[in-house]
Design a protein that fits this description.
The complex is a heterotrimer of chains A (341), B (304) and C (344). Chain A is mostly helical and 341 residues long. Chain A has helices at 2-30, 35-40, 46-55, 62-74, 88-93, 95-123, 128-142, 145-159, 183-190, 193-230, 233-240, 245-257, 259-282, 288-297, 301-329, 331-335. Chain A is globular, with a radius of gyration of 24 Å. Chain C has 2 domains: 2-106 and 191-336, 3-Layer(aba) Sandwich (Rossmann fold), CATH 3.40.50.300; 115-190, no CATH class. The chains are: A mainly alpha (341), B mainly alpha (304), C alpha/beta (344).
């Protein structure tokens, strides 16, 4: 039962990826102009352009072009940037892990902080704890994320001068040997705790700016679900049996209650990825946003499509993992209608 | 599900009438609404923004600064009595530019909703009504494709393909936004579609447009209205994000996002170039969010 | 002698009855008005006895038992009772909102809706394990012991393949099986009193029959006493030794089941029994006119008087007290008290 569930979700993921790829492909071919000429620049000779055209299969029927394009992606060939005239893949290789680390760290904060706040608010329902958390959620949701980012910069960077303001590491720090591309993990693997600490200091402000709204949503949803589920028969029955309150809340109430929050995480990761575009600019974070935005401003179609594909891939894979997590938590979804009686 | 019974003639048969007592309902609604302080604050904020936008030439102290204007002598003046929010890098009055920027933000918001809502609603209505058929599949799969990318990314992509200006930003955000309406309307319509009163109308032979417009659509009005209010803030935020990266409103037109991004270059010295546009964005977005939350509470929409 | 009417002197030998409730009142504080749901509930359950509590939906039978067990929402319920004794232990009220000392200790509750009473994200075994572990004292709580107790309980309720069952999720099982599991859960606590809230009501009639037989056997084989809450007179007749008839939060008649059924005294009871369709007779059964009262504004005096064909002036004034018709039958109605007043 579980394997078929995973397989089905995986299949859905593949289909979605295909749909995205078609959408992007259509967008790139819809633009006027000669992609080969734009890739090589105005100074290249006619012959070079013709050669590139043949290489890019630009004169062949559209469905064949799509096929070559997709297989090219699998080989890691994302085309040549119209702007830098270099292979897109080389340019992006360093930026992608930076963005992913930021987004994943922000997601982690959302899950840990958001759920904890929600649980606290539910356990101390209608007390000052609950009211304070609700107020915080309101504030977090009302203020747009880049306003938060700027406020955090002003507060911690200038007024308090506690945290660094830009980049992933302080100028003189050396990056640890690249295993995953995530400085936090690489630093831990290398046992270099100073690097990890420095990286964290740099990570915290941009991650917070990204996830404020998400924390509020997670807390609100968790609290509401917990308070709804508390009234359910199966919880009340355990109360009748004198189940100690701690175990009741943490084991039997929490698990069914965080399911909606986890389900929302998929969409939230998408929102975080999108927001990172702006936040990376503000914090001078060396992620794909800088590259992507430059591509967008210069109409570098290969650059744009590459960035969008990568983001789409990340988003879809993240949703897939979230779906699996939900299935893990809620057996009804895992078994999906296969009841034995 | 709130059902709005209206006067209708279906093939000569007079259907029952029950006009809600509007005055009483409004007064009660206001009473409920005003009990929530946050919602009232939201309403006030939105009203301020609307007044500023509509009466911009009157309220702004230096209306001509909102266009092409250069006065290098007065650049980077901190906030003063003459320039409430200070001046920017070419000497323009920030206060007036923010007021005018509200205009463009609201224009963007209304424009996007004016496109996205009808398109999304009609598609959702059709897909939901013909649920299970090929029409449903085509419409909803298309919607899913558009939803498979994070919103900002989609908007950025579309905006970047076209020339950056307000009109194209509007178009980009609309394309990003309509699927959400389609999905919401689809779910409402699918569930309402099988209600007895809809079936009755079909059996009585009512024309399709009456069923869609007169029986099913009224159920969507409340969630639509609430969602539109909540979305206003989100749309404006998306528009500001586009402007922030340079793909929306172009200089010299004042846009909250553009002003913000320009302002970050001059931090921390000319802090007024960042704070005031940021506050402006906050006013608009938070105002609509709070207002929308309040509306959702009193109108009781579960689908939003 | 067993005496449990309110306002009368009680002469009760201590270990005669397992459970004694006297003059229980339950009110719910709402916005503004208070709903006085249970006006006066008294109950007496002897050892190895099956007592039924009957009344229409909303008469307060569930609320009364839940109040005794302490399962009501704590914030809004207001309780008071003249006397509550279980197993010779006096139970006192804590802060007017719940009874202390009764929960879990010797009384088990089998809830009404089996399909929503088990946590859907945990296996049956895991929930049973935690329940048993809570009831057991430290030294007995080894995994094997607990598991054995669970398996024994599952066998006692006649579930086949109990080992397999433990690994399944509640929604994978039928309603009847879930109900049995809930009963098994109840008996793992080795209770002396089992309270069944509408047992089998949510299930098919045939399954309900099996469940009721099961309960009967539990009394016979394990010596528990049972309180059955139901609106179904057939169940009462089948299962209970004594019956308490409730209306709108008051006990209107009480006695040995066969006597009450053969010779119903209270107009409400008569109406109830008349409502049962019969194969012989005049066709569609007669009902009782009117509806149950709004608890925020209940009728003064006898709460049944607006619906009663024999209403007298005195009925609108004060609540009637219980009168003994015989040793095993009592009723709260002015028709049977001394002193008759005018028809109203």
């Amino acid at each position: 039962m579980t394997t078929s569930f995973v397989l089905r979700r995986f299949g859905a993921m593949i289909l979605t990826l295909l749909a995205i790829s078609v959408l992007i492909f259509v967008l790139t071919r819809v633009m006027p102009g000669d992609p080969a000429r734009m890739a090589l620049g105005p100074k290249a000779s006619q012959q070079m352009v013709a050669d590139l055209r043949a290489q890019m299969h630009l004169d062949e029927p559209l469905y064949l072009q799509y096929y070559y394009w997709v297989t090219g992606i699998f080989r890691g060939d994302l085309g040549i940037s119209f702007y830098s005239h270099r292979r897109v893949m080389t340019d992006l290789k360093d930026f992608v892990p930076a963005t992913m680390e930021l987004v994943l760290f922000a997601t982690f904060i959302i899950v840990v902080v958001g759920v904890s706040l929600g649980v606290l608010a539910a356990m101390f329902k209608d007390t000052w704890v609950d009211a304070a958390i609700r107020f915080f959620c309101y504030a977090a949701v009302s203020v747009p994320y880049f306003v938060w980012a700027l406020a955090l910069i002003l507060l911690f960077g200038y007024v308090l001068s506690v945290l660094p303001l830009g980049g992933r590491l302080s100028p003189l720090m050396l990056e640890p040997p690249r295993v995953t591309g995530f400085i936090l993990l690489d630093g831990l693997l290398a046992g270099n705790l100073t690097v990890v600490g420095d990286a964290l200091a740099h990570l915290i402000l941009p991650a917070l700016s990204l996830c404020f709204g998400g924390i509020a949503t997670a807390a609100r949803v968790t609290r509401a679900t917990m308070s709804d589920n508390y009234k359910k028969d199966y919880i009340q029955l355990m109360r009748a049996y004198d189940m100690p309150r701690a175990r009741l809340m943490v084991k039997y109430l929490l698990k069914p209650s965080i399911i909606p929050t986890v389900a929302l995480l998929g969409m939230q990761i998408g929102v975080l990825t999108a927001r990172s575009f702006i936040v990376e600019l503000i914090f001078v974070w060396p992620g794909i946003s800088k590259y992507g935005l430059r591509a967008m401003l210069c109409k570098d179609l290969n650059g744009i499509s590459a960035v969008v594909i990568l983001i789409g891939l990340f988003y879809v894979v993240a949703n897939f993992l979230v779906d699996i997590a939900v299935g893990f938590l809620d057996p009804r979804i895992r078994f999906e209608g296969m009841k034995s009686r | 599900m709130r059902r709005n019974l209206l006067h209708r003639k279906s093939k000569g048969i007079q259907v029952a009438v029950e006009k809600p007592q509007r005055a009483l309902w409004l007064r009660k609604a206001w009473y409920d609404f005003s009990r929530n302080r946050a919602s009232v604050v939201g309403l006030a904020m939105v009203l301020i923004v609307i007044v500023c936008a509509v009466a911009a030439p009157i309220i702004a102290t230096h209306p001509d600064h909102a266009g092409l204007f250069l006065d290098f002598k007065s650049k980077f003046n901190p906030p003063s009595l003459e320039h409430f929010f200070g001046t920017d890098n070419v000497g323009r009055d920030v206060f007036s530019r923010v007021i005018f920027a509200f205009r463009f933000s609201l224009l963007l918001g209304c424009g996007v909703l004016a496109i996205a809502v009808p398109v999304g609603t009609i598609l959702g209505l059709i897909a939901g009504y013909y649920k299970g058929s090929i029409i449903d599949t085509v419409i909803m799969r298309t919607t899913d494709v558009f939803l498979s990318l994070p919103p900002l990314v989609l908007a950025l992509t579309i905006a970047s393909i076209l020339t950056p200006n307000l009109r194209n930003a509007l178009l980009a955000v609309s394309i990003t936004w309509w699927p959400w309406y389609c999905r919401m309307i689809y779910s409402i319509v699918s569930s309402v579609r099988n209600e007895p009163y809809v079936r009755m109308a079909e059996i009585l032979g009512a024309p399709r447009r009456h069923i869609l417009g007169g029986e099913i659509l009224p159920n969507c009005i409340t969630p639509l209205f609430t969602k539109m209010t909540l979305d206003m803030g989100g749309v404006i935020l998306l528009g500001a994000s586009l402007s922030f990266v340079g793909l929306g409103v172009q200089p010299p037109t004042p846009g909250l996002g553009t002003m913000l991004s320009k302002g970050t270059l001059y931090l921390p010295n000319a802090w007024w170039l960042v704070i005031f546009p940021a506050l402006g964005i906050f006013l608009v977005v938070a105002g609509f969010n709070l207002l929308g939350d309040g509306l959702r509470d009193i109108l009781g929409s579960r689908d939003v | 002698m067993v005496d449990e009417k309110d306002g009368r002197d009680m002469e009760v030998t201590s270990s005669e009855n397992l459970l004694e409730v006297e003059a229980l009142r339950v009110a719910f504080a709402g916005f503004g008005k208070t709903a006085n749901v249970v006006e006066s509930f008294s109950l007496s359950v002897g050892h190895r006895q099956k007592v039924g509590v009957v009344g229409e939906t909303g008469c307060g039978k569930s609320v009364s038992m839940k109040a005794i067990l302490g399962v009501l929402p704590e914030r809004t319920a207001r309780l008071s009772a003249k006397r509550l004794v279980f197993n010779d232990r006096e139970i006192r009220i804590v802060e007017g909102t719940r009874f202390k000392g009764l929960k879990g200790g010797g009384v088990s509750y089998v809830p009404q809706d089996p399909m929503s009473s088990l946590n859907p994200v945990y296996t049956v075994g895991s929930q049973l394990y935690d329940i048993v572990r809570t009831g057991i004292d430290r030294e007995r709580a080894t995994r094997e012991k607990v598991k054995r107790e669970i398996l024994e309980a599952l066998e006692a309720v006649r579930l086949s393949n109990p080992e397999v069952l433990l690994r399944q999720y509640p929604w994978q099982l039928s309603g009847g099986m879930q109900q049995r599991i809930l009963i098994a859960m109840a008996i793992t606590r080795e209770p002396q009193l089992l309270v069944g809230d509408e047992p089998g009501t949510a299930l098919d009639v045939t399954i309900q029959d099996q469940i009721l037989r099961l309960l009967n056997d539990l009394v016979k084989d394990h010596g528990v006493s049972i309180v059955i809450i139901t609106h179904n007179l057939g169940v009462i007749r089948l299962l209970s030794d004594r019956v308490t008839i409730m209306y709108a939060g008051c006990v209107v008649e009480e006695g040995v089941t066969t006597q009450v059924f053969e010779d119903p005294k209270h107009p409400y009871t008569q109406g109830l029994l008349d409502s049962i369709p019969k194969l012989t007779g005049l066709g569609i059964a007669k009902g009782i006119r009117g509806r149950i009262p709004d608890y925020r504004d209940p009728p003064p005096g006898c709460r049944f008087h607006p619906r009663c064909d024999y209403c007298m002036t005195v009925c609108t004034d004060t609540r009637p007290e219980h009168v003994d018709i015989s040793a095993a039958h009592s009723v709260a109605c002015y028709l049977y008290s001394d002193g008759v007043a005018h028809e109203c």
